[in-house]
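Purpose: get a first structural picture of the assembly so the mutagenesis plan has something to point at.
Setup: two entries, given in the order below. No constraints added.
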Amino acid sequence: MKVDLSDEAIEYGLVARQALEAAGGEGLVQDAEVDPSRRTELVEPVLAELGAWDLQPRADADELQASAALCRSAGYWATPYPVAERLARPRDLGVDGLVVVDPARPAGTVAGIDRRWAAVTLAGDRSHARTVARATPANRNDAFVDDLDLEPIDQAGADDVALALTLPCWTLLGMLDRAIDLTRQHVLDREQFGQPLAGFQSVQFQLTDAEVERSGLDVLARYTLWSVLTDQPGAIEDALALRLAALDAAEIVLRVTHQLHGASGFCDETSLSWISRHSQPLRRLPYGTSRTQDQLVRRLGRQPLAGLFDEAGDDPLVLRSS
Amino acid sequence: MGPEAEALRRELRGLVGEHVPADYLGAFTADPADLEVAQAFCRLLAAQGLLCMAWPEEFGGRDASPWQQTVVREEMWAHHEPRGAQYMGVNWVGPTIMRHGTPEQQQAHLPPIASGEVIWCQGFSEPNAGSDLASLQTAARRDGDGWRVSGQKIWTSYATMAQWCFLLARTSKEERKQQGLTIFLVPMTASGIEVRPIATMLGPHHLNEVFFEDVWVTEADVLGEVGGGWRVVQEVLAFERVGIARYARCERLLALAPQVLGEAWDDVPLELRGRWARMLTHCRRARLLAYQVVASQAEDRVTPRDTAPYRIAVTTLDQDSAEVLVELAACAPAEGEAATRFRRAVEDHWRYAQASTVSSGSIEMQRILLSRAMLAAT
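Result (structure tokens, whole complex):
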């Protein structure tokens, strides 16, 4: 089990973050909200310059880690483009991206991006996916989500699911990085009762609650990359566990960071507001917290997640019973 | 962790399976036989060179890797710490004496620890000095060629069974309260020491008050420099940075639940099974955070930014998982050895878990350390 990111992947993520900042940072998502059809022209050139489409996350650890680092950097700026979904494209379908969907209500953040999309369910059913014509005009609270029409291909997508679940968690992790960075600076700058907010222990402790969630998600995300890359028997369960942790972390981090920003956190001129709103599709699709948990439980059955004691039948407490 | 560490895990599980009763819940129960299990197990580990394997070879250890040490912590805590109180002597009393002790102190104290024959207690906390340890008032005043110690310690684990106390006392009043503190290695048989057990939900023979009334200690019992105790304490805390591998017991009990419940598992409410899965995820999270600290420790670059999130995550995991386990235990069959043992183990875990955010450095102290690190200038 190797869970550290390589220096190269860390460096690539940093370069990607700087490149996206130079291209506009959060200005990208603000511009894209005004006209979702511009998402491609706003973001794709930057990603192409970064060599994003040359990445082969299924190839080896270096490629996978670089892909994850790119997703994290994209999340940091709430980049209005389905980077993780593009990188998760299957090798064998001749498509440009892959979206994990709930078959009962397939949807994805693909609005306005004219690409060949595939969809996969947790059961491994793969389809071609096309956006459904909207009955009402798009508005900014759609967060670039379109419903999808599915045209079945095969049931051979089991190997695609874990990666396609994992990479968006890295995007969400990048959003949480940004939310905490913004909040740290805010509580240092903003003064009340004659001192920075950071001087109040109640503020400090809330910030640490958020950081525990973020750092926990960070290590789980790295572990899951290893599980996916090495094709562990429980890789899909690992990815679902990561997603569950990511959703929990997002709820806590964004609640704390909004609270500590006060009213300013809801303003369009405040970066947190954009991060928070655009985290929504990642947190709700294909499944929100409860249904992600249900899916994990159903897949696990009586078998715990891989760990120190996943062969509990050998435990003396059970073995030495009559 | 590597093949050596995993081989060690198998070896330790084999020894636990063979020499520790399946219903063992630690050395500090009302049954004296449990203490004897721990004492015998320590002697066994010592005989096989496993008790002090983290120690340098020159002191009888094996120079075990940080990952082997991690395996020991995990396996021992998961199986209700069959080393009893001796983990303390092995983990940090011995290593501290190696660093700061005189050759005579090393000769006197290290072999008994290495052979599994001695129990130490830690005389740190006082009624008015818990998290704010440097405010302690137990004082040692010079008297001829030795010292007289007077004061009170509290929450002292294992004091009723300990032969030695690693005592922190004030030897002078200085400008800063962290100055003027000194470590003494005090025999618990010394005249003037009185131990009063404190009845607690952690069970008998665990927490105690220790009173020192003009206890005579010699210059030879001073560890390190007079007045240099705070630095030694910081080192002690560094040895304990990873601390108890609480996640290992949580994970073992959670993993056992479906085995013990058998067919009844399918009748467990889906919501509760969801909490079970979530706790398993939290176990993994805490374990990975611990490994991150171990890796940093191996490179001597540990910071509160690594340790505090781990300590906060693992202590809250202890309590959160205890609540889930209690509910799962209630779903276990009413009869059968495995179910009975499981219920007792879960009940024991729940009681101990209540203290996990308080003992060995409260969760508030961890939050203070983490917030300082986060808010420091970058």
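Chain B touches chain A through 55 residues (CB under 8 Å).
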